[in-house]
Structure prediction request, 225 residues.
Amino acid sequence: MDLRFFEIYRSGEYLFMLLQGAMFSILLTVSAAILGFLMALALSGVRFAGVPYLRNIATGYVEFIRNTPLIVQLFFVAFGLPLLLGYQWPFWAHALLALVLNFSAYFSEILRAGYGTVGAGQSEAASALGLSKLLIFFKIVLPQAVAKMYPSLASQFIFLFLTTGVIAEIGVNDLTQAGKFIDSRTFRTFEVYFTLTVIYIAISLSFKLGLAVLQKRLFAWQVAR
Prediction:
């Protein structure tokens, strides 16, 4: 094979595009994860508390998101919602919203499963001591659930980062879009996408390492067991 990686590496413009795209993908993923986690707390909390009607709505939302492809959600958010609601955002904002909705559903389901691992006796004991349901949830149930389900949350975070390449389909200048642009100029498809693969792997491993360090700091009491 006649491999010409130098056609990518010798161009400062291409290297800058890859760097810029990688940084954008990282920032977008982290932002979506934080917002999605906060939304997941609300969704899972409503389902855990068994609030009438709201529980059914939250359950239906989670099932809808988890049973439709991310790219379909992305197109609906980017092209469907603006037509229905009469607004227009930059495409990166549409991508962020789609990722937040996606993250929230998967995180919510993981958290809901985590609540089931916390013994009912702890909640009953706290209730006997006079603690409110809200305080029991945030002080006793939630910390233990997050600690126990942290590996699943971290894995889902990395998985969703790897799927963010679909946002290039609506023209967002992420890492995959940078690769598509370089490929269209150099016609070195294998070299370009091999380079993208290496970058995605490097970022994913960095995320994995960073999340492992964060776990030890936040949940040292759980890791030590």
